[in-house]
Each structure stands twice: as structure tokens, then as C-alpha cells.
Amino acid sequence: MSGNTLGLLFTVTTFGESHGPAIGAVVDGCPPGMALSEADLQLDLDRRKPGTSRHVTQRKEEDRVEILSGVFEGKTTGAPIGLLIRNTDQRSQDYGDILQTFRPGHADYAYHHKYGFRDPRGGGRSSARLTAPVVAAAAIAKKWLHQQYGTQFYGYMSQLGSLEIPFKDLSQVEKNPFFAANADIIPQLEAYMDELRKAGDSCGARIEVRARNMPIGLGEPLFNKLDADIAHAMMGINAVKGVEIGAGFKSVAQRGSEHGDEMHPDGFASNHSGGTLGGISSGQDLRVSIAIKPTSSIMSPKQSIDLDGKPITVQTKGRHDPCVGIRATPIAEAMLALVVMDHALRHRAQCADVQVAVKPIPAARPGSTPD
Amino acid sequence: MSGNTLGLLFTVTTFGESHGPAIGAVVDGCPPGMALSEADLQLDLDRRKPGTSRHVTQRKEEDRVEILSGVFEGKTTGAPIGLLIRNTDQRSQDYGDILQTFRPGHADYAYHHKYGFRDPRGGGRSSARLTAPVVAAAAIAKKWLHQQYGTQFYGYMSQLGSLEIPFKDLSQVEKNPFFAANADIIPQLEAYMDELRKAGDSCGARIEVRARNMPIGLGEPLFNKLDADIAHAMMGINAVKGVEIGAGFKSVAQRGSEHGDEMHPDGFASNHSGGTLGGISSGQDLRVSIAIKPTSSIMSPKQSIDLDGKPITVQTKGRHDPCVGIRATPIAEAMLALVVMDHALRHRAQCADVQVAVKPIPAARPGSTPD
Amino acid sequence: MSGNTLGLLFTVTTFGESHGPAIGAVVDGCPPGMALSEADLQLDLDRRKPGTSRHVTQRKEEDRVEILSGVFEGKTTGAPIGLLIRNTDQRSQDYGDILQTFRPGHADYAYHHKYGFRDPRGGGRSSARLTAPVVAAAAIAKKWLHQQYGTQFYGYMSQLGSLEIPFKDLSQVEKNPFFAANADIIPQLEAYMDELRKAGDSCGARIEVRARNMPIGLGEPLFNKLDADIAHAMMGINAVKGVEIGAGFKSVAQRGSEHGDEMHPDGFASNHSGGTLGGISSGQDLRVSIAIKPTSSIMSPKQSIDLDGKPITVQTKGRHDPCVGIRATPIAEAMLALVVMDHALRHRAQCADVQVAVKPIPAARPGSTPD
Amino acid sequence: MSGNTLGLLFTVTTFGESHGPAIGAVVDGCPPGMALSEADLQLDLDRRKPGTSRHVTQRKEEDRVEILSGVFEGKTTGAPIGLLIRNTDQRSQDYGDILQTFRPGHADYAYHHKYGFRDPRGGGRSSARLTAPVVAAAAIAKKWLHQQYGTQFYGYMSQLGSLEIPFKDLSQVEKNPFFAANADIIPQLEAYMDELRKAGDSCGARIEVRARNMPIGLGEPLFNKLDADIAHAMMGINAVKGVEIGAGFKSVAQRGSEHGDEMHPDGFASNHSGGTLGGISSGQDLRVSIAIKPTSSIMSPKQSIDLDGKPITVQTKGRHDPCVGIRATPIAEAMLALVVMDHALRHRAQCADVQVAVKPIPAARPGSTPD
């Protein structure tokens, strides 16, 4: 495959460009018999949608998803689920300029050298808009995993630019445009973004994603460790430059006596591992952290070259997210859910009838701090 | 596949356990006509080998690789290359104890719940010993990429436990057991390790890996971005808990005006991107950083449970690396080479005859600091 | 993948059901820079279309294909090509009866036991209607292969029920509804079909497919032999029960002295191999023959069981092809083109820079009969 | 992958050449906990072994298989199973001649044009010797399928050259070197082969393979129909030129009223479908028939060209099977078992918890003839 399909057994194959007629996905491998409607997918699509606050791109997209196949009388049939989202806000654009230059930090230069030319419309295939069908597809996985194992996915922003966002209250996440688990810090975040926008600049963000009520035993021993596949999925999100599982880069300075999570009959005492042991889920919560770089499209001028290799100055106009990380939380959850789903099916294939005499212990012992 | 194959076109399929009769790999997709002998593979195998200093496991393994197929009269034929490494130091072990317990931080608990039981011999399939055939396989990729594009891979340790290792001199890397690019710091590292061993504890490490003279255009737009596949490969290495490309987690606090690498006719002015734009190689050096957790096998006691769920105290005996990161540099290089190789072949498939009018600019303009 | 994707490098992922809102495909891996428009795809879609003669189903479908992505300013970009065909003739159907029974020879019984229930609308996912997006996708492959190597695909019917159709004149194929390369036999075929329809019965057909101007060297040594992948593709077409390459089943009674195609400086003397040697294309024409079973939906009553396992009598009503083989020629060509395309890309990946000193000989020496 | 791996979830990756040091396979995806020893594999290896009668190649190979991994204390662990077979009879050969010519009907010409040169030792990678590790791998699948579902695989020769072999008695199959289910015809087959050998010629064969006690529901709707994957596997066997499922090419002349297998509460009334409906197993016996072409290596002279394109006469010397079909029965069984195994695991992945209210009917009603 040429890189537009994710997964081995639960596969998502996407198509579309930012300013083409439509984007979409084919979701294959969903178990049959699950109740599914477009409303199930719309919820996460709406969480990802642009134009919902002054801090994100003002592109107006309904992002209405249409289920084209794979569902009969409200239930999945086992056949592939075709998803279609029409692009409604394809502003006709004078992209002549863009085609003559390579914007610093953009995919322009790499695409041009790979394919010989490129589709300049709104970033074409490299646009973050392509995460919409992925989010819709993942909603199917989330629903199935929740019904099957009670697994739940959630995420929140833990840093915006240089501002750390202390975790306080998960219930706040959906109540502010930053997906911050902390109501008190919102004014500070708002001010930070306003200053940034005024400066014509952009910033990065750090997002945390979690899965709880994880089934044990997901992940394959060597190259398809659960955490390896998570890293793959996360680094595949636009603008992501780093991925951590559990203690992540902090584990470098940890000692073994501290890092290894002790087990007790009443549960794990800590979760430095981030939910996997030897690449296989342990039943602890999955803990993933990702770094999102600052948006490349900024109003301030940068040096670059044109198609003739001549030096030029590039300055982006138009509607752009000054921090793509603001909308990244639902996307990161989606990628995590897709990986877990694929591994849940893989696990059934090889180990459906494994009998384990040993009873699993709780994900976290009472009083332990999972993070 | 059940997770023991890496790659789509240049594939490495491994088998074997730490204390079984042999380990090995089938390497498929190598272009025909390349000179290849066992000596080409032995070099990197020897760099990875245990028992070469007092800071690593004292297991004595020759790690002699035998090429079983795919080479005729000293040249690759295009057929799969079978690699075999006999295990010579399979100490008969009293693993009865191990089988009754779940060691904290080990794969034991997860394997047991996945498969219903497990192979306790030296960690079985989850042992770092399994990286040997991968290193051998990657030597084939390295050779081909060097011949084809002049691409070179190298790595070094940048942090040992809490000690940062300032980069000074690449030529030092092969002259010390830590793969440190800094001769002055070696006594400090030695002392750190001696103290750790005395304490019966272990520590983590941070490894940097680089590829230079990279072809442009490798990587696929969406899910198989070059950096996504790198993250997958790196997180698949035993004990890795974090992966960064380019500026990594530092990019969170960067502004767009700083992060986006400016382009000039004489080259890129910086390399915060780490060598990819939109997931596709830009011709800049690949820059990857990984976090390796402290070894789980430590001499100091930890709390755990036994097969009956009863609380027990676990204390590891026997030969173990107090810092698996010490030997991880050649492994990380290997994984990077395998990903680049696979994408080099994928790129030829789709874009072999693309004509690019634009001349690429140098990877780094004179005077720029690539990191 | 769950079986709805064909190919490794040039992939076709389909979705849709016979009577859902739409069917379609995502085509991934097309080389960039090729001129492509909907008209290129429509030609073969029209050849496959129902309702074009009284001998095929009278379902009225426009089968208008829409390209949703992957093409910019009339050229492929290298991004996935989304194809959409709206179902326009979804007659509301009283399928209550169908849901209560298992029709002999239909997929009903197998689907029901696999998925627990099924989508009865026009056969759902098992309908031959799903070949439409495949035919559209293959038109892309055909165009590229023709531009790249001059490769051409064609097919014709060689047997209808018990009537053999002697090959006479390829130029007749598109001039009759049977794809017969023989004008003289058409009245006989018409009469045969009329009699069949009157009897409320159905019949099978044999289709020949060919590729000429084949590049040499396509196919992989062991499991992905070119002929193995052809067999896979052909047997994946609805109602196909047999596949032959070259001499096929006739080779059983041949002697080696007869079968092995002699080579001369002016070309191959015969083509019993059907265009492959050791599973790899030899430059000779590909010769494939397939058997299509009689349509299962017939007007005459057959014994079956209902959902309660009780015996019942089933009799199909409604519009059905009395011989699905009549419309199968463009489908078989499409499948052959998709396999050749995928292998053309695979070949470039591994062998793009192979230099062959030996000059290939012509596909057929003057005076030889290729079949 | 470059064509040396079969399967998606139960994968067999082979390596080796006819006259290299060893051949082997990595078998991945075997469910854990199954008792397995080398003796389980040796049985089928011995059935496939050369040198067992005067009608097959006199190469003396022990074909001793060594299990290198994936088994602990006599049980599969879920880790990949490494299989190794040393080549013991690698006669040093004067292949200088062979390298200068292209033998008609051999892979020489295609390999040379694909890879630029080739390994001439005993056919190298294109040798039928490579089926040995496949047969060993399939023995694992056979054992698991038998334990899990009672599924059994068997095969027999139904035609040798121009001699049809009427099916009489399955118990005879293992008692004669032809795998004929008919004791009476053996003298005739012996005479036929003796005459052939005297003439320095070769002949083809037709082999039937069956699976009984098939689980229902295996196979995926579109491109990975069970029969499509069977066709792929069968056509991947050396020298196979045709594959039929069920009625095969006979279905062309059948009417729908005859072909569609009627269902009754006490079972299917016939088995023209060959065990699949819509590409999904119906619980009926799988019925597969394959055509094997006459061996290309014959003693009688044939016209060909040399490396300079000059006409030459080729005449094979040395030990060769005058009918490779004689030893093909265990290989065809093996391929069938591998496909069924892979689909059994795939089925569990998607449909492990499907509840089917309808009771399956027997594979064949009393008194029906399954063929």
C-alpha cells in the first residue's frame, strides 16, 4: 500500500485533499452486528471541527459524514464501511504564488521532489483536514471497544507553547476550546493565543492521550508491539515531532528501582510503563504524550527559495490555525483507538481460546497515582 | 503477520528465543547484484555483541552469522537472504522460580495473560538478544543505501542516566563502550556505572541516531510518513519509551518563526524538522532521539505477585545489562536503516521515472548547525 | 485487511453494496503525472454496464464515475484516487421473503453463518455490481501500462453454455453483446439465450483474457508468482470456478517435448506457458482462461431450507442476468490489468536498476500461433 | 513483501535454494499451547521426499526438519516457529553450460531478465525443492485445524499424462508412489512412466485435493474469497497451470438448474460449488483440482538460445522427476491447509463472537455424492 491505509485487520483507507470535492475513508474489518449511525461518528467530528473558537482556523466546514455502505437497518454487516465528507468551503484561491515557492516547514519542497509537482490547494493531501475521516473511522472503533471491553479514550492538552497546563479536572476538557483539564488557566491560554495571533506567529502544544479499561494481551512481540504501533500512529499525525509512552524521556534518568511498576494483589502501584510490558498491554491505562510543532503557516516573513532556486521571502496569508495542537486532542484519541482496535482483532485471531488461570490484577491499586 | 516482520518491500522476518538453539531472520526484497558476504554483517554484529566491557552482560556469544541463501558467487540474487545465528551460551538455568512469579517491569505478566503461559528461558522472545538478526539484516540495507545514495547511518549516546553527554567528536564513538562522542566524559560514565552496579540498580539512556546523504522524497503522505515508520521502528526496540524527530518535544515551546527551517540557495539554514517535511524526506539529515528505560532486571528487591496472585518479593540474579542503552546504539542505527531502505524501494515503485526540474539544495548551508 | 483490498503497491479498496446509496473504490499507488479524467474510466464502465441488450439484466444504471481526489489539473498527483458511483436504480424491494430463505448456489447461507445475519438488498456485498469500481480502477492501470510499456489487454468469450465459440476476428468483440470474436455465431448465441430465458434457466461461460506487449520480469519467485496472483484475481470474480494459464488443463496430457516453448532468435515458437516462466513474465502474451458458472438466480424452482431449517421451494423473481458470463469480459480484463500493474510497480522497487546484457526475443516468432 | 511470504495471520516466510546450504521457513501466528514436535512435521515431509520410487528424482535428501524456535517444553508458545532443513545432497555440478543457455520451459529466461543474472544451482529459488519447508509449515496448520474443527485434508492423483485414474479407494493413496486412489491401475501407471523415462520425455498430472469437516464462514467477501486465496496458493506451486473449484470448467456447460446445490434439512444434495458460496466456506467439503504441466527438464533435445541470443540445442542431463506431479499431492494438500488456517484465524478476528441462531446442515445429505 502506498501509505494511505492504517491497520492490518481493522483498516482505514483514506482519500481526498483539502480543497477537492470530498474526503473520505473506507473502514474495513468492523465486526458485524454493532448498532451504528452517522450520529455516532458526528460527535467526534464536531469536536475536531474548525471554526469553533477564535483560536482556530475560521474555515467553515460542516463536516457532515455520510455512511455509504456496511450498515443495514442500523447495524454493521461486516462489509466495508464507506465514509464520505463533502468539502463545502473550498474557497477559490489564487495559489499561483504558492506554486512558485517552497514555504519553510511545509511539505511543499518534499512533495515537489517526490512527485515532480504538487497540488497546492490548501496543502492538498498534506492538509490536517485529512484527519476528519480518520476521526470518523475511529469513532466506530471506540464504540466497539467500549461495548466489548468498556475501554474509553480521552485526551487533553498539557502544554500550550511555553505554558504548562497542570492537570486538574477531566470534566473541564470539553468545556474550553483548548481541551485543557483545568478551568483556571483558560484566561491565560486565551491571552497567550491572542498575543501570538497579534504577532503573526504560531506555537506548539503537548497533548496527553489515555485509554482506560484496557484488555490485557494486545500487541505482538517484536515489530508490532502495541507501543510501536501507537508511536507509528501518533507520529503519522500532522505536525507531531515526538511520542512518549508512560514515563517517556523521563525514564532516561530514572533508576530501575524506581521505574519498574510494582505489582500487588490489589493492583499496580504505579504506571511508568504507560500500560505495556514487553510491547503487550498489561491492563494498566495506556499513557501517551505527543509533541506538536508550531504551525508552519505564519504571517511573519521567512526566507525561502522559488522554483528556480532563487531566494525569496515567504509570508502566509489566509485562514490558518496559529496552533494546530489546539484541535489535535480528538485526532490523537482517534489514532490511539484505531491502534487498540486493530490489536484487539489481531489478538482474537491468535489467542481467542487461550485460557489463563491467573486472575488479572486491577490497573491501579487504591491510592496510586496512575500518571 | 503476527508482528515478527518489519517492512513492506524490504522485509525482515525474525525467529528465535534467547536460549533456544538459534535465532535468525529472513531478509526479503534486497535488490540483486550487490556484493555481500558474512563479513559485511559481522561488523555491526560485533558492535552490538555482549561481553565486550564490564558494563554490559557477561554472556559470551560469538554471534557468528551464517548466510543460508540469497547469495550466489558473492552477489545477492534477489532471492530471500536467510540468516542464522546459533546460540552458543545457553546456560542451563533454574528458571523454576521465574516461572512462578511476574517480575516488575518485565514482559512476564503481559505474555502470560496473552498466551496463557510463557517461555522463561532468558526472557524468551522478549529478550534483547533478538536484536542480533535485525542488526545483521540492517547491515545489508546499510550497504545498499551507501552504494546507491551515499547514505550513512551513525549514532551515539547523549545521556546516561542523569548524566548528559555533550557531543564533541564523532570519531570517539567507536573507541569507548558507551558509544559516547566525547572522550573526556568516559571516566565519569565509568564511575557512574560502577556505582550503579554496586547499588544493584540500573539506569536509562538517551541515544541519537542520524542518517546523512539522504535521498529526497522517501515517505508516504498519510499513515506511512517516513517519520511515522521511524517512530514505529524505534519504539519496537526493547525498552524504548520515547521517540523524537528533529526538535522533538522542544518544538512544543518553539514559535513558528523559529521552528520552520529556512531554505537558501546554498542550503537549509537549520534542521528542526529532523529531515522530513510532511512526512517525506527533504534531503536534510535524519535526526532521531530515543529514550531507553532502565533495565527491569535489578539486584535490589521489588514487590510483585506470584502465579496465585499472592504478594512476593522479586530479586534478579544472573548476568544482566545494568543499562541496556549502552548496547542500543547499533540497534537504533539498524532500525533506522531498515526503514530508510524500505522507503527507498517504495519510492522507486511509484516514482521511479519522476522528472524533477528543480535542483535540490544542500542539506545544510555552510555554517549552519545541523542539530 | 478484511479482503476488500487488492494489490500491494497499486491497491484497490472497494466499498458498497448493490442497493446502498453508492459504491466506490480508493485507488492507491498510481504514479504521479499521468493525464487522467473521468472519461478514461467511463469507457470500460460502459462496456460492463447492465441493460445494454436483452440478454443481460435490465437494471438501468448510468454507472457514472466521479473522481473525488488524486487528480489535479488533469494529472494524477500520486495521492489516492477516490472513485464514487452513485446507485441510481435501487428499486425498493420486498426482500422479506429472501431474508427468510437460503437460495441454492447463493452467498446467503455462507454470509448468514459468517456474520450472523445479512444484507439482502440485491445480494448486498456479494453482488456482481461491486465489479463496477474495480473496472474503473483498472482503467487507470490500463492507461499507465499502455503508456509505459505499450501493454494492451483484451478478452473475449470462447464458450457460452455448451456452445463453443471459435475465435475468428478480434475486431468483432465490441460489436456484439457477447464479446464474441466471431460474427457468424451471433444468431446461434442469441437463440441459445432466448431459449434459456424462456426455460427460466441460466448457463455458464468461458472467457479468454490476454495481455500483449508485456514487460519481462514481472512476478515474484515463490508465493507471488505472476500467475498465482492472476489466479487469485480471477477466482475473486463472482461466479468464477476455474482458472487456466496458457495450456491450462490441457498441459496434463501434454509431453514435455511438446509443452516447453522453444526459443529462437526471432521469437518464441509457441505459447503453452501462457506468458510466464517460473511465475515470472517472459515477454510472451499472457493467456488466461476462466470458467464462469451459471447464474444462481433462476426462475425454475429449487429445493432449499428456511431460517428455521425447514424445507422450502425457492424460485427467483426479478431482473437477473441469465448468464453473468456475458458481461464478465471487461471484468476479467480489469482484474488482469490490476495484477500486472501491481507487479510492474513491485518490479521497479526491487529491480529498477538491473542491467540485462541479453536482448529479449520477440513474444512470438513469425508464423507461430500464440494460442 | 517480495513474494516469499504466504498468508496474512498465519504466515509462512521461506528462504533457500535447491543447492545452497539449507532451506527453511518462519511460521508466524500459530496459536499458543498446541503440542508440537519435529515428528509432527516429518510425516508429510517424508510423503513429499524424493528418491522413494524409481519414478521420481533419485536425489537423496533426508529432509530432516529442525524446529529452531516457537516451541517450549513441547508446546507452541505463540512466537514464530523457525524451521530449518539442511541440504545434504548438493552434488557439485558443472553448471557452466546451464549458465550459458536458456532452457525451454524453465525459469532461466525470466529470472535472467528480472534479476540480471541467476543462480543456476539446481534451479536455485525456482526449484520444487522449496516446497519442503512449506509442507513442514502446513503440517502445523493441519494439526491445529484438526484439533480445533476436526478438519482433514487429503489428496490424490486423478490423471497421469493421458491416463485418467478413476477414483476407487482412498485407503490406497499412501500405498503407491503415485498417490492414486486406485490399486488396479498401478501397473498401467508404472508402465506409462517406464515408457516415458525410456523416451527421455516427461508428462503432466492432475491432482485432486479435499478438505472435510470444514468450519463455515471462512473467506472474505471480495478479493480474499476463500476460493480466490486457494487459487492463489495452488497456482503458486511449481508447474501448476490450472485450478478448479468444485465443478470447475464443467460448470460452463452446466445449467443453473443443475449447478446450484440444493439444501435439505439433512444436508446439501450435491457439491458443484466445491465448498464455497460467495467465496465463503459453506461447511461442504472443499474440492480443488489442479493441472500440473510436464517437467521442463527432459532428455530429448529442444531448440533454444544462448546468452548471446544464438540458436542452440538444449538437452537436460541429471536426476529429474519425469513427472513432478507424482510428488505434488502432499504439496497441494499443504497449500490448501495453509489457506484454510489463515482464514480460520481471520474469521476469529472479525467474527469471534457472532451468534448464529440457524443450525448448519450436514455437508452432504445421506446418499449424495460429494463430487
UniProtKB/TrEMBL annotation, chains A, B, C, D:
GO terms for cellular component: cytosol. Its EC number is 4.2.3.5. Residues 256-265 have a biased composition (Basic and acidic residues). Its cofactor is FMNH2. It catalyses: 5-O-(1-carboxyvinyl)-3-phosphoshikimate = chorismate + phosphate. It is an enzyme of class 4 (lyase). Residues 256-276 are annotated as: Disordered. The keyword Transmembrane does not apply. Keywords: Amino-acid biosynthesis, Aromatic amino acid biosynthesis, FAD, Flavoprotein, FMN, Lyase, NADP. One of its GO terms (biological process) is aromatic amino acid family biosynthetic process. It holds the Pfam family Chorismate_synt. FMN binds at residues 125-127, 238-239, 278, 293-297, 319. NADP(+) binds at residues 48, 54. This reaction introduces a second double bond into the aromatic ring system. Belongs to the chorismate synthase family. This is Chorismate synthase. The lineage of its organism: Bacteria, Pseudomonadati, Pseudomonadota, Betaproteobacteria, Burkholderiales.
